[in-house]
Amino acid sequence: xxxxxxxxADKKTGAKKPKKGAPFSGMAGAFDAANDATMALGPxxxxxxxxxxxxxxxxxxxxxxxxxxAFKAAGNFSEDVVKIMTGQSDLAPDPKDKRFMDPAWRxxxxxxxxxxxxxxxxKGVKSYxxxxxxxxxxxxxxxxxxxIIIDALxxxxxxIGNPTAQKRLVDSGGLSLVKGLKNAYNDMVHNxxxxxxxxxxxxxxxxxxxxxxxxxxxxxxxFELIQYAPTTDKVYAIPQLTIPPQINKMYINDLSxxxxxxxxxxxxxxxxxxxxxxxxxxxxxxxxxxxxIESCIKAxxxxxxxxxxxxxxxxxGCSGGQTMSVLLSKLASMGDTRANAITMMxxxxxxxxxxxxxxSLVSHNGIALARQRAQKKGVIEGSSLxxxxxxxxxxxxxxxxxINNYLLGDDPPAxxxxxxxxxxxxxxxxxxxxxxxxxxxxxxAAPGTFEIADHTLDLTKVTGDMFILGGTTDHITPWRACxxxxxxxxxxxxxxxxxxxxxxxxxxxxxxxxxAKYWKHSKGKTPADVGEWMKGTEEVAxxxxxxxxxxxxxxxxxxxxxxAALGSKAYPPKEAAxxxxxxx
Length: 584
What we know:
- With 584 residues, the protein is α/β, with parallel strands linked by helices.
- 39% of the residues lie in helices and 12% in strands.
- The chain contains 19 helices and 16 strands.
- α2 (67-85) runs antiparallel to α4.
């Protein structure tokens, strides 16, 4: 059931009033939205090749020990083949499967049969796995690995089996094949043997991406701190510091004027500051969580000096939220009360194996092996991380682009969010090891048991008001896993917002999209049981940004005159935003 826009709204922020009694089941269609291609740091970053081999070995052992079920599956497949050969098969692709949209898959006997053979294999493997005596975790592993193999076998991935590519070849007089080969060659030479997901040519930092006005006000070997220029005569006294992920560059928060979180903040009187992490090289691989937390504390020092405020609102998304959580625990252990209101976006602190099928592959042994390999390297290259994440969802992140770029000879799409995602950074091996240890020990959810950044991690000592965001179709940080964070902190006022979107699109959700909506608890409660939270939700039409701004204003102090200049005597402005480190 779609939400209707409410005409009444807060004049300052544009926040819509909730739709009372909106059924939570009305969001079901949101889960069909397209997934995105964003990388993230979590247990999946610790997947070792042994985890994949182990999952394949499990299937082979089951086949060897259950030959009767293998024969049964083969018999069922043979029956499907006979029906296909005699034209009696009713197997047909899912109408939403973009791979089989060409009419030839329905009307050309050759292609129709090819699709049916493929679907018969897919059906047979799925039913075979369902028939095996596996526990839920083993079944998820088997389904995940088998689907990767089946996706690779799709007839659409080859020229001979793709009618759309064949038509393009004829219509272009062979030029599509020439262009496709050229694209493949460029990827082999210039894109580290990975198929390109984006056309980078239209984008240039500071010109049409990351255009918000501001200056670097501090720089050391690990980070730059950027202060953004006010766009209002009055600003709120308590500034906002954003801690971005170390695995991606910070300009996701200022992607374009229409999708800029920074511009939204400055246009509503917030004083935003943002850390820009340096892209580490091999000799910087010793930077671990301790060094990054020291940098965050230094950023707080600079923000307080420039603004004169003794309080700072902080926000972090994805692995930036994980770093922020360690920072908040560290500050609490020091008796440092500068952290005020806290915003955490699409961030999982307590992952569990059943969160996604891919997460079922993660094992303690695999994480230990990944940590050992990380220790032998200076840095984990961004391209290597990107390749690993792409193969977790090959249909969307590999074969889709193989068809577009190589078989059809088209350029990859020119989307700013994909441009940002392709602009990956290296990760210091020490930090990778720290993240993996945090997840292996389930440290965020086990207060007082884990030493990191020169203190004992304990989120129950963090008491600031919290605003936590999840995305309905987020396959990287599933929203139910994000919700668990509501129970980990000592904060008395915690609000959870569920945006109708995927991972980064949940954050980049500016007003103006007529289909946008989100869910909030009618009383602002976050009970331990997510099911109880769902029962008390209200559906609200539009973006969650206005509601967040309303929440933030209430925790940002009084309004004061906007600063006439950026920086301070101790920290004068340097280069214009987005700074220098973002270019490395």
